[in-house]
Amino acid sequence: MNPDSPLMRIRELTVSYAVRRFPGFSQERLQAVRGVSLDLHSGRVFGLVGESGCGKTSLARAIIRLVKPDSGSVHYRDFDLSHADASRLRQARREIQYLFQDPLASLSPRRSIWQTLLEPLLHYRIGNPAGHRARVEQVLEQVDLLADILPRYPHELSGGQHQRVALARALLAEPSLIIADEPMSSLDVSVQARMLTLLRTVQKENGLAFLFISHNLAVVQQLATEVGVMYAGELVECGPVDALLHNPAHPYTRTLLDAVCKPGNAELSALPAGTPPSALHPISGCPFHNRCPHVMEHCKITHPHDNFLATATATGGKHIVRCHLWNS
Ligand SMILES: Nc1ncnc2c1ncn2[C@@H]1O[C@H](COP(=O)(O)OP(=O)(O)OP(=O)(O)O)[C@@H](O)[C@H]1O
Ligand SMILES: [Mg+2]
Fold first, then answer.
1. Which of 87, 193, 213, 248 is most buried, with most CB under 10 Å away?
2. Is the preceding peptide bond at 304 cis, omega within 30 degrees of 0?
3. Residue 261 and residue 278 in contact, taking contact as beta carbons nearer than 8 Å
4. Is the CB of 102 under 6 A from ligand 1?
5. CB under 8 Å to 326, separation ≥6 — which residues?
């Protein structure tokens, strides 16, 4: 593989769910992700932001086939994960580790921390059994935990410790890519800051690719090399972090940034006025047109396509916006 080529290429990924209509309980499809394309690179962090329900988790789960996408492709290294057989998928799942929003739910209550951390080494046959204890202790040190935690069970630990155990377990599988889905939202603010520093250190030390998902643009901008903004299932803008922060192109991205500049308002949940369209009943044209301060007549009718704005000279990252204001 060419060292400059992306570790993962996601193209036109679309995810929907069958849901029951009320009343009557007949089935209909809810469109959670609509035609999302992005690249993930080794040694870089792609920060994905967007309001609750915009499809971030559905996208992340579809990448590793925890949900089956309707269409689109995911290429990891030289594998096409969309058509990979079970053994390829198993290998990819070792290399692509997932940190969940609620770390406690991802830890088995009946396993001690030692058993939890040993599991990836045994499952993936990593290293020599005589060296397992030393390897586990080495990774515990990397995530700022002491070895005296090993005989304990998840209910005997704090929220910050759960998330660090989950991170240690992910690192023991020797991943190339970590998908971190709101990994800090269940932690208190002081613990969040420590976890953020830890994630940054671990990512750099291991040269990992990261897909970091958050509601909080202020957090994402501290960690990310590239940022993607999702709205109503679509990636409406993406590009190098500097381009997005200094030259935001999509009106939605601009409102998010304005909100971050207002103290105490870094969470996206209260933004902007109005509500996103329902995933069950999408609106015509641009999905943001009913909230957009720059709405034009054809925004209400025609769905916008991706417009290319610039390429970052340092990384080759492309700044792309899905908005009629930028139609060339
Ligand atoms: N298993 C499911 N079955 C049916 N609908 C689902 C399912 N999972 C998610 N959805 C719907 O898909 C849409 C996207 O949900 P998703 O969990 O991907 O959003 P999100 O951006 O991760 O939100 P949050 O920030 O709250 O975690 C929502 O409308 C949600 O109700
Ligand atoms: Mg989510």
1. 213
2. no
3. no
4. no
5. 249, 307, 309
Tokens of 310: 């610039």
Nearest ligand, measured from the Cα of 56: 1
Q: Tell me, what amino acid is at 79?
A: F
Task: Give 194-252 pLDDT, tens digit per residue.
Answer: 888 999 999 999 999 999 999 888 889 889 999 999 999 999 999 999 999 999 999 99
Q: Which ligand does the CA of 54 lie closest to?
A: 1
Q: What is the mean pLDDT of residues 30-55?
A: 95
Q: In angstroms, what is the span from residue 210 Cα to ligand 1's centroid?
A: 21
Is 57's C-beta closer than 6 angstroms to any atom of ligand 1?
yes
Ligand nearest to the backbone CA of 48: 1
Q: Is 56 in the pocket of ligand 1 (CB under 6 A)?
A: yes
Q: Domains plus CATH for the chain?
A: 8-326 (3.40.50.300)
| Angstrom distance (rounded) from CA 302 to CA 285 | 4
Question: How does pLDDT run across 252-295, given as a tens digit for each residue?
Answer: 999 888 877 665 554 554 455 678 888 888 889 999 999 999 99
Q: What is the pTM (predicted TM-score) of this model?
A: 0.92
Sheet with 234-240: strands ordered across: 96-99, 177-181, 209-214, 45-49, 226-231, 234-240, 318-322, 306-311
- Which residue owns the Cα nearest ligand 1 atom 1? 17
Q: Of ligand 1's atoms, which has the minimum distance to the CA of residue 19?
A: 4
Q: What is the pLDDT of residues 100-132, one digit of tens each?
A: 888 888 899 999 999 999 999 999 999 999 999
Supply the residue whose CA is at minimum distance from atom 18 of ligand 1: 55
